[in-house]
Amino acid sequence: MASQKSQLTVRWLVLLLACIMMIGNYYCYDNPASLHNSMQTLMPSTNFETYYSLLYTVYSIPNIVLPFFGGFFVDKLGAPICLIIFSSLILAGQIVFAFGASVESWPFMLMGRVIFGLGGENLTVAQSAVLAQWFVGKELALAFGINLSISRLGSVINNYVSPAVADDLAFSDFNGVSMALWVGALICGGSLFTAFMIVPIDKAATKRLKDTTKFNDDLTSSLLEDGEDGGGNNRSKASSFDGIRAVSAERMSTSAMLLHEDIDEEEIRLTDVKNFGVIFWLLSLSCLVVYGCVLPFNSFASGILSERNYFKAPSSSCVLMNPGECSSGLLAVNATKNPARDDGDFSEGVSNCPGDDFAPVFPTSLDSVTCNGVSGLSCDKSSYTFSTVTSSDIDCDDDFWSKGCAKNYCDAYSDATKTSDSVMSIPYFISAGLSPLLGFLVDRIGYRAVVASLAPCMLVWVHLTLGFESGSPIAPLIGQGVAYSLFAAVLWPSVPFSVEAKSVGTAYGLITAIQNFGLAVFPLIVSQLKSANGGLYLPNCEVFFTGCAAAGVLVGALLNIFDARRGGKLNSIDGKGRKEVADRGPPTPLMTT
Ligand SMILES: C[C@H](NC(=O)[C@@H](N)CCCCN)C(=O)O
């Protein structure tokens, strides 16, 4: 049945709907990354980075196990019904997450991310299984590419829309962050609606194909019975039968017959996993380490780019003329009278520090500074006293800081956040543009295993550059986008070539579960590395990402070796490989005479 769906024109509508359905998932998955700085301002805490990492970790922890069962249920219950269940979960999760942000509660926000995660990853599994049913052979990677492209548009739109909503759309009872998350919930509602549209289309196609198959079966068996009657009619009956066989064979494309047997009647068991071969396990390992330096990197990209390029720490020699007074704003004694200069040299002609792209210097201590009576200020507290001011004390949502005492710092922080958020979109922007083209090429030239080892090579360069050089981040981020797009273009369409057709859902579930092990653990490692390095991401976190990419190169090399030994399926154009073609011989006819 699966193979025959790939012959129906309506598959393109299914693809379009499946892609639109994923926008909500991708938009909301990356909400925390794009709202990182706004959340830090809304809910300042010394544990902020840990809570922030947990938003990704709790999404992934249940998914270390669940997609495996999700994939199994996809194989058992059918992918379309699973689309509705999982889309409902992402909507419910996003609602709880947005509610949590509205009441500024970490426990609710984390609970929302758990529920969202239960739906999000399983939805990816169900959707991959739908695509593998409707698209085969020379259209499979193209379908995955188009899908990833539109999904990633969701990530890119989120990077622009969410910070803008958070900045500009705060109402009295709804802070900006929660407004941005409620917009996400609206988009998830749209995804659920789209999932509901796919189900009847899939059902109608399944029924139509079942009817056609039954009609063909009835016709051929009645002709066979007639043919067995003997007598002079045999020759003409036989030629009618040949005709039917030819028409039927034409209906199933050659690649469909080779790659996708009808799986409806075959029993599917979780224990089928033990039959998954080395190629599947290498693909899974590659997915773990290579995605480990793509998705977690994106979660921290805003902070990494701020620290590296747009909000660099000023040198310790750069100090305020009056370190115990406000640096800029309505409460500064006189902004021009409290400049920052290197080494405390305030003589005429010494230039200001720290300069463009650096965080402005803020007061080192404050003694009972009050907003009382200053027009244009509505401060959170009546007076502010700090023996030592640290960056986490500066709450730019409070007028005291943003308008009164560290205006230059808050303005520069807001500008740096906007720049980091748009620059960090580069990889996903590239993925949105390149994925369909790469999918089309992979379907035509193969070399899946080769590409799966070249992409992490590029990632090694990207993360070494980000970790150890200080120039513009544009070139490495373009590299990250190209490498990620190449890798995704070959990884996901390779899965159906590594297992039997009946286990494709289970295989997608398992590889997603393994991927989520990395997505759960890696953000925690990154935040620990940051804490251990005095709150700085660089270079340690980038060393970690480089290590993941290097492991990807190694696994990629093994993938090529084992693929070559097993007939070169992954590197072949059609995913059949030398050995399988030889084994299977010509396409199996529907019946033998
Ligand atoms: C296609 C691939 N998908 C995944 O990696 C998912 N397991 C995670 C998607 C995150 C949004 N829910 C990709 O995005 O490259």
From TrEMBL:
Pfam family of the protein (one): MFS_1
GO CC terms in record: lysosomal membrane
Transmembrane helix among keywords: yes
Subcellular location: Lysosome membrane
Domain of life (superkingdom): Eukaryota
GO terms for MF: transmembrane transporter activity
InterPro entries xref list: MFS (IPR011701), MFS_trans_sf (IPR036259), MFSD1 (IPR052187)
Claim: Transmembrane helix is one of the keywords in the record: yes
Keyword set, alphabetical order: Lysosome, Membrane, Transmembrane, Transmembrane helix, Transport
Reactions accelerated catalytically: L-lysyl-glycine(out) = L-lysyl-glycine(in); L-alpha-aminoacyl-L-histidine(out) = L-alpha-aminoacyl-L-histidine(in); L-arginyl-L-alpha-amino acid(out) = L-arginyl-L-alpha-amino acid(in); L-histidyl-L-alpha-amino acid(out) = L-histidyl-L-alpha-amino acid(in)
Parts of the chain that traverse the membrane: 12-29, 51-74, 81-103, 179-201, 278-297, 423-442, 449-468, 474-495, 507-525, 537-562
UniProt membrane topology term: Multi-pass membrane protein
Subunit structure: Homodimer. Interacts with lysosomal protein GLMP (via lumenal domain); the interaction starts while both proteins are still in the endoplasmic reticulum and is required for stabilization of MFSD1 in lysosomes but has no direct effect on its targeting to lysosomes or transporter activity.
Family statement: Belongs to the major facilitator superfamily.
Role, per record: Lysosomal dipeptide uniporter that selectively exports lysine, arginine or histidine-containing dipeptides with a net positive charge from the lysosome lumen into the cytosol. Could play a role in a specific type of protein O-glycosylation indirectly regulating macrophages migration and tissue invasion. Also essential for liver homeostasis.
Record-given protein name: Lysosomal dipeptide transporter MFSD1
